[in-house]
Each structure stands twice: as C-alpha cells, then as structure tokens.
Amino acid sequence: MHIITRKRLNDFVEAHPEARSALRHWYVQVKQRDFQNFAELREVFPAADQVGKLTVFNVGGNKVRLIAAIHYNRGKVYIRAVLTHAEYDEDNWRE
Fold it and tell me: CA torsion sign, 3 to 31 to 77 to 52?
C-alpha cells in the first residue's frame, strides 16, 4: 500500500526514539501488502480498530497509537496522527 505521509512517522520518532523499531515494523508490514478490506488488515494487525472512518493501530506494545484513513480501493494509507497512549487518551485527535 502507498503510505502518505511518512513525515508524521519521522517527526514522532524524533520526539520518541524508543518507538523507531516498532514504527519501522508497522511501515514495512503495511508497505509490502495490498489489503483489500479491514478483515484482511486485521489478519496482520489483530489489535487494529475501526473508529468511525479511521483505523487505529496499537504499535509498540500498546505504547503508540497510529491513526490512519485507509482507502482500500485506491491502496492508500493516510497517516492522520501518531500519538503516545497518553495523548490518544486525551481524545483531542478526533477533532
């Protein structure tokens, strides 16, 4: 799948270098696949959840939340936010 934008991953890793390995793993797993629907995605990421039109990934042992809009028909993943668990719990990302 085509991932837009990697900059959000890089920015998060700059502030949280301990997340580098986990986010790299997520990136490689998504980039090398062509998911057709959420069910296929859950086979690889069983902890992923649908929240409205967005998909929330638990990354790095539940320490990082990656929020993305996935357009399966176009093969595109739009990263909306990468947050720590605490930032995610503040619920400001839904705005």
Answer: negative
The dihedral over CA atoms of 35, 38, 42, 47, expressed in degrees to the nearest 10, equals 130
Which helix (H) or strand (E) element contains residue 6? helix 6-15
Q: Is the distance from CB of 19 to CB of 63 less than 8 angstroms?
A: yes
The answer to whether the pTM exceeds 0.85 is yes
pLDDT digits (tens, 9 = 90+) for 38-60: 999 999 999 999 999 999 999 98
3-class DSSP state of 87: helix
Give me the half-sphere count of Cα atoms (radius 13 Å) on the Cβ side of residue 62. 3
